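Much of the work behind modern protein science is quiet bookkeeping, done one molecule at a time. Below is the pair of lines this work produces for a single protein:

***
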Amino acid sequence: MRVLVVPYDPRWPTLFEAEAAAIQTALEGAVVALHHIGSTAIPGLHAKPVIDVLVEATEVTQIDALTPAMETSGYEAMGEYGIAGRRYFRKDDREGRRTHQVHAFVAGHAEVERHLAFRDFLRAHPARAAAYSALKQGLAAAHPHDMDAYIAGKDAFIKETDQLARAWRQAQPRVERRIVILGNAGSGKTTMARALQDAYGLPHLDLDTIAWAEPGKRRPLADSVAALEAFARTHASWVVEGSYASLAQAALPHCTELRFLNPGVEACLAHCRARPWEPEKYANQAEQDERLPFLLAWVRGYEARDDEYGLAQHQAVYDGFKGLKRVYGAGALHRP
């Protein structure tokens, strides 16, 4: 295999964004975050012209279930491919040249942290990046048709940089994450919140727990907002999720990021039908099954509903927020 290393191309970030949108669609409901990694993600660095995409997923089993959609998008599924816990996909152009690679892990996996630390360290240390660039060019010139030798020649530098990046990352100020997740029932709010909880140790507040005085009877809004604000004051970082536009709006002054989950009504219906028993909401599986027709009817009304549980008010909350925000669904935005 020919070893092709080229100068940095300023189009690479745009190519990542385009591919990330396609991956978000293919892996709908399974993505916590998407990141541009590898040498094409580091400005000024010589690199093989291959876009590497890192997927943080809710569960790798969900990635497995969506493998046919990735194959439809032109990817070859390679399983773990030598790294435990990974799902690796690769795509070639019509001439057989590699163009994209996808590395999917459950959110918070050690390999996610390693990839991001390596990328961010080189972005922040141009001299180290220049040394890496020179090494890659020299190895490509010395081994133009020996990919194994090229990879082996980088190994010591990469391992040393991993150590430096880990120490640098640990010395950085702790990032506060206060995330509000809003969306229809079945849109994946709780799944995403739990993945963030596991990945970053975030306290998790399900707004259902503060919205209702008893089944069928809402608490006064002022009481729910007071409980929400007490939660926000108690924790430096957190994730809050629910379908309540009023409570999401009340949380916005405290949050650092808003995520609007809008995968479409049909996707929400499918998620509701596939839900395992939720013991925090239902006494048993039979009770949950009995309530399913009501839930499905509720989900179907999302786009027409004009109350705080409907699309119109959710969209208004999203449009009005001026901080960091992302839509998950058709036309989703992504982390860099």
Q: What stands out?
A: Confidence is low (pLDDT under 50) at residues 330-336. Residues 75 and 91 are 5 Å apart (CA to CA). The longest strand covers residues 98-106.
